[in-house]
TrEMBL record:
Pathway: Amino-acid biosynthesis; L-lysine biosynthesis via DAP pathway; (S)-tetrahydrodipicolinate from L-aspartate: step 3/4. This is 4-hydroxy-tetrahydrodipicolinate synthase. Its EC number is 4.3.3.7. The active site is at Y135 (proton donor/acceptor), K163 (schiff-base intermediate with substrate). It comes from Paenibacillus brevis. Homotetramer; dimer of dimers. SMART domains: DHDPS (SM01130). Pyruvate binds at T47, V204. The record marks T46, Y109 as: Part of a proton relay during catalysis. The lineage of its organism: Bacteria, Bacillati, Bacillota, Bacilli, Bacillales. InterPro entries: DapA (IPR005263), DapA-like (IPR002220), Schiff_base-form_aldolases_AS (IPR020625), Schiff_base-form_aldolases_CS (IPR020624). Belongs to the DapA family. Catalyzes the condensation of (S)-aspartate-beta-semialdehyde [(S)-ASA] and pyruvate to 4-hydroxy-tetrahydrodipicolinate (HTPA). GO terms for molecular function: 4-hydroxy-tetrahydrodipicolinate synthase activity. Keywords: Amino-acid biosynthesis, Cytoplasm, Diaminopimelate biosynthesis, Lyase, Lysine biosynthesis, Schiff base.
């Protein structure tokens, strides 16, 4: 499965009552595919506020997204949790709904050791025929999948990729030892260019909600050997890459999308809208 170079971790649109806004979800999917050039969409990832979505809401989003995308891009379902049995259940439900792959975050809070991490991901992978993308984000989970554990998991046939947020250094180590066809994605927009330079295949992005087409051009330029052009685009986009994370994600990107006319609503508690000062900084990114 080739998920492409640019994957957008899609926000979940809510209406004024805090419920999923299906009309705006469809509009957002069309926009991310057609205007921002996303090759794949992660649905119900952290940027989609997965901790506040029920399983019923997640399955409805998986089903709707597959039907709305209609083959124009791949749909990757965020089905990971810190419970292996729960992750297996949600993964199997997502598979029935026709998604193209699943994203499995490292278990958070219970902090398993490396053997526990291996057994967790191996068990979920064995429960499905779908391609699996691991997700290592130690800042959020308080545990990191080591490069050795990633390389061990990469030997499992349907574990096809990783979204790696630990460091560009770790991406380089994994790229040096991974089997052919195992795809590495950075989950940090600001690291997209250096990560691809050391062996990543692409990026799972938040900023691509706003500058996806330019990110696609940046990546294409680097792959075409036009490093100077790619660097100039990186420098231009860097304020957006960094500025969107001055608030807890996805507070800033949802605010920016609303300002751009994509009425994705606010965030669910325990996240809160940006302060007046934060909102002014977000608006400055859009000029």
């Amino acid at each position: 499965m080739d998920f492409g170079r640019l994957i957008t971790a899609m926000v979940t649109p809510f209406n004024a009552q805090g419920e999923i806004d299906w009309e705006e979800t469809g509009r957002l999917i069309d926009y991310l595919i057609e205007e921002q050039k996303s090759d794949s969409l992660v649905v119900c990832g952290t940027t989609g506020e997965s901790p506040t979505l029920t399983d019923e809401e997640k399955c409805s989003l998986f089903d709707y997204s597959v039907k709305r995308a209609a083959g124009r891009c791949k749909i990757i379902a965020g089905t990971g949790s810190n419970g292996t049995a729960h992750s297996i259940h949600l993964t199997q439900e997502a598979e029935k709904l026709g998604v193209d792959g699943v994203l499995l975050v490292a278990p958070y809070y219970n902090r398993p050791n490396q053997e526990g991490l291996y057994q967790h991901f191996a068990a979920i992978a064995s429960s499905t025929a779908l391609p699996v993308m691991l997700y290592n984000v130690p800042l959020r989970t308080a545990v990191s999948i080591s490069k050795d554990t990633v390389l061990r998991l990469a030997q499992i046939p349907n574990i096809a990729a990783i979204k790696e947020c630990a460091s560009v250094e770790q991406i380089g180590f994994i790229a040096a030892g991974a089997p052919e066809g195992f795809a590495i994605y950075t989950g940090d927009d600001a690291s997209a260019l250096p990560a691809i330079a050391v062996g990543a295949y692409g990026v799972v992005s938040v900023a691509s909600h706003l500058v996806g087409a330019e990110m696609k051009e940046m990546i294409s330029s680097l792959l075409a050997g036009e490093a100077t052009k790619a660097a100039k685009l990186h420098h231009k986009l860097l304020p957006i890459f960094k500025g969107l994370f001055e608030c807890p994600n996805p507070v800033a990107v949802k605010y920016a999308l609303n300002e751009r006319g994509y009425l994705v609503g606010s965030v669910r508690l325990p996240l809160v809208p940006p302060t007046e000062q934060e909102a002014a900084k977000i608006l400055s990114l859009l000029k």
